[in-house]
Structure prediction request, 178 residues.
Amino acid sequence: MLEVPHNLVPTTADWPNHAPGANWLERVEWCWMRFDELRPATLYAALQLRQQIFIVEQGVPYTDIDGRDLKASHLFCFFDGRLAGYLRTLPTDQFALGYASFGRVVVHSRCRRLGIGRQLVARAISKLAETEPGIPIKISSQLYLRDFYASFQFVAQGLSYIEDRIPHIAMIRPGDPN
Prediction:
């Protein structure tokens, strides 16, 4: 099991001000964990990062801890030993009947524009193809990310809607053939 440092989610001031350099990918570690494998410090780091971005940065008070984490697989991206990105995948029927899903996709503000978000989503799709073969994936995307998810073959469904004060749209990606 990955040894996780105590200072997993540094404040913005703790991140270097310079670009990470050409070899930054060599300093990235990816780790999947089920809820029952999470150490308290790792869980705390994920919840802290989610709160920092979804509640504080986006200014949306909502119930982040929704009971779905217990059945989710959690993907952590550590950069130089710090939590830089995170998401969770949900098995079929946990988000919407007949669909697998992923969500809570988050990248630390100092680690954006490095491709971590793309890697998180690509890894989520691969994980769901492995654990939920042939099952389509349904997500609730923030509306401004529609084109980002479309680049992964997600198709917008219906009209946009407001979820937690932010415009969203349902998007579906067909299940990969077995």
In short: The first helix runs from residue 40 to 57. The radius of gyration is 16 Å.
